[in-house]
């Protein structure tokens, strides 16, 4: 029984984990869950982390990023898609709104899988926006 693989986490189970991971957001998460707004829940966690960033609480943010990576790793395809497209996408905004040394430290703490996804997103954006620039010329 101890060696049984963990069940893949769907959005309903993910919500319960997020309530546990983010006790200060429990009310907001519950309200958004009633509305079946998983993307809104992830956005609420992003907003929370951005507030921590303004307070320079880098190690706490790194801890929450690790928790989100655990959820990502164990999530179903829907949970993974939302985390990639909202949570990991938010790293660019965090980078822009943080001190260089804070971003460097945060990136160092970031799970490797999220670093890879973030890098892929940056490369894809560069290709996409470069094509847009060429079309406008």
Nutshell version of this structure?
The chain is mainly alpha-helical.
Number of strands: 0
Q: What are the segments in which pLDDT stays under 50 over at least 5 consecutive residues?
A: none
Largest sheet: none
Q: How many discrete structural domains?
A: 1
**What spatial form do the alpha-carbon principal axes imply?**
globular
Description:
InterPro entries: DUF7674. This is DUF7674 domain-containing protein. Residues 16-122 form the DUF7674 domain. It comes from Chryseobacterium piperi. Helix content is 79%, strand content 0%. By secondary structure, the protein is an all-alpha fold. The protein has one domain (11-135). α4 (58-74) packs parallel to α7. The protein is globular and about 40 Å long. The N and C termini lie far apart (63 Å). The mean pLDDT is 91.
Write the layout of secondary structure elements.
Elements: H1 11-21, H2 26-34, H3 38-54, H4 58-74, H5 77-88, H6 90-96, H7 100-109, H8 112-136
Highlighted features:
about 140 residues; mainly alpha
